[in-house]
Specification:
The complex is a heterodimer of chains A (about 110) and B (about 120).
Chain A (H helix, E strand, L loop, with lengths): L8 E5 L4 E6 L9 E6 L6 E6 L4 E2 L4 E4 L5 E6 L8 E11 L2 E6 L3 E6 L1
Parallel strand pairs in A: 1-10
Antiparallel strand pairs in A: 2-7, 3-4, 3-8, 5-6, 6-7, 8-9, 8-10
Chain B lengths: L4 E3 L2 E4 L5 E6 L6 E8 L3 E9 L2 E5 L6 E5 L5 E5 L8 E8 L11 E2 L3 E5 L1
Parallel strand pairs in B: 2-11
Antiparallel strand pairs in B: 1-3, 3-8, 4-5, 4-9, 5-6, 7-8, 9-10, 9-11
The chains are: A mainly beta (about 110), B mainly beta (about 120).
Chain lengths: ~110, ~120
């Protein structure tokens, strides 16, 4: 079945780059990859999304492999406030089938 | 611009009761979707509405239902509550058909439902 996979947890030293991977092997066509993060007791916060090309905004960079079956979210200079659960979300649309797929999320710990 | 607003923020109900949760999307957004989040199952898609029509539905029993009004505001209803329905219920809105075009989801902070 279609799914995304992410590591359960990761650690990163404060000030270093945090690289969070996601596998989305069934993605194809014009389906975007979205990244969100969630701090306890709040709703998921939008970070970035992309289709084929690498993307960068004020929060992060998104690297998507050429075959689009995986992506990496990069937080260039992690701070303690980046401690959160990070979700990779894709929407897989086929004829008569529309699945919204969440990973289980990666719990990112930023270490002082 | 105001974000997605969900009410109430917290709710306690007993088994067998029914509950209605409300969501006001970002102004101008026409698509509203609902999600259930539990520690064991993570984020799970419930349903999605666009222009008052349910466009997509996840794998939840018929006790879970929703609707969208002409002003794009949405409600979801859970009837005959069970203990396992205790969860954070999240609403998200987008300008239009997110996932296939340049239109990200924006989430509210959710309604935490506790069923006793």
């Amino acid at each position: 079945d279609a799914k995304t996979t992410q590591p359960t947890s990761m650690d990163c030293a404060e000030g270093r780059a945090a690289n969070l991977p996601c596998n989305h092997s069934t993605i194809s066509g014009n389906e975007y990859v979205y990244w969100y993060r969630q701090i306890h007791s709040q709703g998921p916060q939008y970070i970035i999304h992309g289709l084929k090309n690498n993307e960068t905004n004020e929060m992060a960079s998104l690297i998507i492999t050429e075959d689009r079956k995986s992506s990496t979210l990069i937080l260039p200079h992690a701070t303690l406030r980046d401690t959160a659960v990070y979700y990779c979300i894709v929407r897989v649309v086929r004829a008569r089938d529309d699945k919204i797929i969440f990973g289980k999320g990666t719990r990112l710990h930023i270490l002082p | 611009k105001a974000g997605v607003t969900q009410t109430p923020r917290y709710l306690i109900k007993t088994r067998g009761q029914q509950v209605t949760l409300s969501c006001s999307p970002i102004s101008g957004h026409r698509s509203v979707s609902w999600y259930q989040q539990t520690p064991g199952q993570g984020l799970q898609f419930l349903f999605e509405y666009f222009s008052e029509t349910q466009r997509n539905k996840g794998n939840f029993p018929g006790r879970f239902s929703g609707r969208q009004f002409s002003n794009s505001r949405s409600e979801m209803n859970v009837s005959t509550l069970e203990l396992g329905d205790s969860a954070l219920y999240l609403c998200a809105s987008s300008l239009n058909n997110w996932g296939q075009n340049n239109s990200p989801l924006h989430f509210g902070n959710g309604t935490r439902l506790t069923v006793t």
